[in-house]
Amino acid sequence: MSSTAPEASTPGPPDGPSLTPYFFILFGMSAGLACIIVLLAELRDELGFSEMDIGLAIGSGFAAAFVASLLMAPHADRGRAPTMLRAGLLLGVLGMVLLAVGQELWHYVLGRAVFGFALGTAGPAARRTVIVADPANLGRNMGRLGAWDVGGFVAGPMIAAGLNLLGGFRLTFWTMAVAFALLVPTAFRARSDTAARDVEGRGLKGLMRIRRLNGAFFVVAAYFVFIGAFESVWILEMDSRGASNIVLAIGITMAALPIPLLSPLGGSLAQRYGARRWVIGSLGSITLMITFYGIVPGVAALVALTMATSVLEGFGFPAAPMLVAAAVPEDRQASAQGLMGAVEVATGAVAAIAAAWVYASYGDTTTWAATAAVMAILLVIGAILTRPEDRQLVRPGIPTDPTRRPFR
Known about the structure:
Elements: H1 20-38, H2 40-47, H3 51-101, H4 105-133, H5 138-187, H6 211-240, H7 245-256, H8 258-273, H9 275-290, H10 299-316, H11 319-326, H12 333-362, H13 364-386, H14 401-404
């Protein structure tokens, strides 16, 4: 079997579903999530919410996304991915409307929960379709999906900052609700894939007994320990170093920009050289780099180091879901990706809380050193569990060539 991924110029095979609706909708929903995150401080100041209130709203979104990832993902394996994409988008509209009209805390808790459920519904549906629609170009397409997903998160802060200046946080949420509504026709262009389906309705049953899948989840958890720590500590540390709100917005955008730019290439390279070695190598390098986050002085140095880390993230970002995809057959793809989403949400939430506590108690140097240590432990466990039992470059028994290759 050749180790070179085939070339293709279209997003899917001629008889397969177009991936464009999935790309566009995940971009929009990621931008909406970024807008919510950026405006949390505005909600606190304008409506008088406490830090605990804001934490409750954030937690409701994490919890809803976690539940949706587990409950809804198996339906995509039964041919309902297009319906889930439409449902996720419509729930996104509803969530934004609740945030736009809200006055009391429960409005924002509910709105954030609805939006979290929307993300947990649409995400696994998009991933399954992208994985099975064109297996020969799995890496490239996963990279493109990641690029659109992260691209929305990069664009969101700038969108929110501009709209908030023009008309406040309510205008921002109303605008995003209208934007989602305009994407509804795109959602109806989504078509079902023709890959094998979970006709027996197994859902999540038995997945946690797959050794390689558990190993892939440890790798994913290692990455989201970093994501959780970053979200709870990085902005606070930038603020403590004297960064203004404008500098923060620009810094976040610059720090994240390499990820969507490099993800398609990273996915193709991961498929060519093996997603296992690719993701472990990139995350190992990131683990080493973040130990310096609390050591480098000043704002500019921290932004530069974060951008360098993001370059590695861009190259390695698609490899983790590819590793998950390689562990299961076609008819279990969405269920496995849903479990991965639950691992991401749970790990990110726990890491964010733990990192915030360590930062408040011991400072940034200790926080980033502890984050790197936890990442290293998880990554070693993941590397051991995903290692082929026969130690060969390609693990036998994976159903299609493009998903066998990631276990090198």
